[in-house]
Hints:
Blueprint: H1 2-13, H2 18-38, H3 43-55, H4 59-70, H5 73-84, H6 89-100, H7 111-124, H8 129-146, H9 151-165, H10 172-186, H11 194-210, H12 217-240, E1 242-244, H13 247-268, H14 275-294, E2 298-300, H15 305-328
Antiparallel strand pairs: 1-2
Amino acid sequence: MILYLIPMAYIFLNKRQPLHVICYLALGFIPLGLSFVIKDFNCFNHFPKWIDSVVHFSIRDKLIDYVNNVYDQETTSIMNLFIFNKKDDYSYDIYKIVGNLSISYLIVISGFHLNMLKRVINKVICKPKFLAEILSLCVILFYTYLLNFSISTSRVLISMLLGFLLPKNKNKYTKTACAGILSMTIYPQIIKDIGFNLSYICTFFVIYILSYQIKNFFINQILICFVCTMVSLPFIASINNQVSLFAVINSLLFTYFINILFVILILIFLIKWIYPMQKYLCWFTTNVIIAFNVLNISINLTVWKIYLQSLYISLFINIALTIKRFSKR
């Protein structure tokens, strides 16, 4: 229901025809109907298996084996966590510390990471723009395969494909809503996934903030970090049973730090002759995270986290709608 509210609110605020609302509701019943047919069958999980059967080996496993054989244990753990979303005992401890800081969504590879990768490709290949778009789609498609077509990255890939195929005048709300419906059509049980819900709702709020076209880059980024952090708090509470009092500050400080690190590791993890650089980056990142955790203060939300998620997101949607309505006046 929450996933329906934001696109429908957009239609209402922009005085779209009632037919659009009816069509949107009708489309929403497609995943519902399919869920009774395919049940728990996950199409996303079968895509990498099919590719592996075609090439007769797993490219992901080969790359992970390469990292395991080249680097020491701590560096390997951090690189596998940041690049392949693969956790072991050491990296899981780091992941838990990041969760204590209420920024675990920055570690899980999602839209922000893939868009950062796309920006780098577009900067390197400025012209022709069409070639840059094709190359970035191919790179992200391959990287999504390396992540076993995880739910969060698959939704972003579908959004990018729609952005490439649909007319440029189509607004971002429509493309994101269509990507959500297609994702749920491919795998209806995706609606139960916390990562999918979190990335989907955060994406809508980012589009909402960008619609104000704030010219100051820093104010724009601070607002995005603040709103995304506040929206994600109930999801973080449902995973970690606690929320950091410094969640917004942690998000502001770590968002670009972690994403820049992600891009650097993607670009250099295969170059073994600069091993000291990769080792130092992983060591530095680990110690920064641990240092911030020492200063961290958290609130335990085990008792009322069940009620927090729906009420909290509903409140945020109503605030956003109210601000948008009054700003139009």
